[in-house]
Structures are given as structure tokens and as C-alpha cells.
Design a protein that fits this description.
InterPro entries: CobS
Largest sheet: none
Enzyme class: transferase
Main location: membrane
Shape: globular
Family: Belongs to the CobS family.
Distance between the termini: 40 Å
Helix content: over 70%
Cofactor: Mg(2+)
Structural class: mainly alpha
Number of strands: 0
Number of domains: 1
Radius of gyration: 18 Å
């Protein structure tokens, strides 16, 4: 209910305790969104070109999450692009209107996703008989690992806003070893399976978490922690870094 637009039973609420426990399943949502995105790609690829099918897969993934993370990415671009103090950055990010930095950032983000995904898939189809299954694992791994990178920030950093005005506030209150273990389990399993085809692919974890480290460090420097928008931006950036890493590893190592 919190992470996607997928309908849930009416008796499920946004209770803080539920949100805390939901943390461990955030990377598992990547399995679901990645599967839906792949299914859209596969169906459209039967009738259209790979590039057009990739565009439709991106559209479906955005519809599935309600642009939850893309909105966070745009807000972070606007906030950190236009603000020079913690208060100003947080105020800009809270504004629902999108600015020039956010619009430009989203355009570049989607262009990168489109090109990197298209090239990776075409590379699989040229060189591999198991292209469809590997493409499926590519989608799942990208969505789960990037969500792990994002949610892991709450294990190491403090929530930035002092009020309870954000929906992400309850998630930041507490977590146990179950949330940590669950997050890493669901976040890493798809990539581990993917790397069974080529052990070098597991190395994609390194650039993703290096990116996560510097993003978290940047957020800490400017706003003394993170917000929900920061987590969304981290997920989006790390997803792109994952595609870039897989393409690099497949081509050059």
C-alpha cells in the first residue's frame, strides 16, 4: 500500500508499526515492480521493437509505483539545486510544484534508463540463448538492489525533518535485525541468481553502494540526514548505476 499503487485489503492501514515492519520488504517490492515491468517489456517486444518495448516497461513501472521515487528524485534535484541552507532545501523539497532542476533531472534520468536498458537487452539477445530469462533477472535485480541501497540509509543515518509532516517519518523511528536482514536478503538474492550465469555480475554491487555512500554523505552534509525524497532519489540513481554497471561488466570485463 505504501510503496506501490497495487490495491491492498481495506483492513490494512498506514499504522507506524506496519510501516516499520514494511521496511524489510522494500527490496521485495522491487521483485514485484521489476516483474511487472519485465512482463510489459516482453509483451510489447513481441509486436514492437526493443526500444519501444523498453519505453512501455518504464511507463508501466511508473504507473505501478505512482511515480513515487521519480517524484522524490525531482524534489531532490529542485531542493539541492535551488537551496543553500538546510531550511531552504527542505522547504523546496516539500513544495509539490516541480522546478527547472527537477524537470531537467527527470528528462536526463529517463533518457539514461532508456538507453542503458535498451543496450543491455540488445546485448543479451545478440550473444545469448537465454536472453529472455537474463532480461527478467536484469529487471528484478535493478529494482531490488536499488531499493536495498535506498532503504539501507535509514539504518545508518537520522531522519532530517524535526516535524512529523512526512509520510516517511514513521519508517525512520525504529528497526530491528529483522528489518536489516530482510532488506539485504530480498535485495541481494536476485543479483546472486543473475551472477550464476556470470560471476562477474555480482561486482555491480560495488558501484551501486559506492553511489549510495556518496549520496548519503551529501545528504548528511546539507540537511543532517535524509528525507523520504532522498530515499526515492537514491533508488532512482542507483537503478541507473546498476544498469550502467551491468552493461560495463558485460562488455568490457
Amino acid at each position: 500500500m505504501f510503496y506501490t499503487r497495487i490495491p491492498c485489503p481495506k483492513n490494512i492501514t498506514h499504522h507506524p508499526d506496519y510501516l516499520n515492519k514494511a521496511t524489510r520488504y522494500f527490496p521485495f517490492i522491487g521483485w514485484i515492480v521489476g516483474s511487472i515491468s519485465f512482463l510489459a517489456f516482453y509483451i510489447f517486444s513481441l509486436f514492437l521493437s526493443t526500444e519501444i518495448a523498453v519505453i512501455f516497461s518504464i511507463v508501466i513501472s511508473v504507473l505501478t509505483t505512482g511515480a513515487f521515487h521519480e517524484d522524490g528524485f525531482a524534489d531532490v534535484c529542485d531542493g539541492f539545486g535551488g537551496g543553500w541552507t538546510k531550511e531552504k532545501i527542505l522547504m523546496i523539497m516539500k513544495d509539490s510544484a516541480i522546478g527547472a532542476y527537477g524537470a531537467i533531472g527527470l528528462v536526463l534520468l529517463f533518457l539514461l534508463k532508456f538507453r542503458l536498458l535498451s543496450e543491455s537487452i540488445l546485448l543479451f539477445h545478440v550473444h545469448d540463448s537465454m536472453a529472455v530469462f537474463k532480461t527478467f533477472l536484469l529487471f528484478i535485480s535493478a529494482h531490488s538492489l536499488s531499493r536495498l541501497a535506498a532503504i539501507s540509509i535509514i539504518f545508518t543515518h537520522e531522519y532530517s525533518r524535526e516535524d512529523a509532516s512526512s509520510k516517511s517519518k514513521p519508517i525512520a523511528k525504529q528497526f530491528s535485525w529483522k528489518e536489516v536482514f530482510g532488506s539485504f536478503f530480498f535485495g541481494l538474492v536476485p543479483l546472486i541468481v543473475f551472477s550464476l550465469f556470470d560471476f562477474r555480475l555480482i561486482l555491480a554491487v560495488i558501484p551501486v553502494f559506492i553511489t549510495r555512500y556518496f549520496l548519503a554523505r551529501y545528504f548528511q552534509k546539507w540537511i543532517d540526514g535524509y528525507t523520504g525524497d532522498c530515499l526515492g532519489a537514491t533508488q532512482q540513481v542507483c537503478e541507473v548505476i546498476f544498469y550502467l554497471s551491468i552493461l560495463f561488466l558485460w562488455k568490457f570485463i
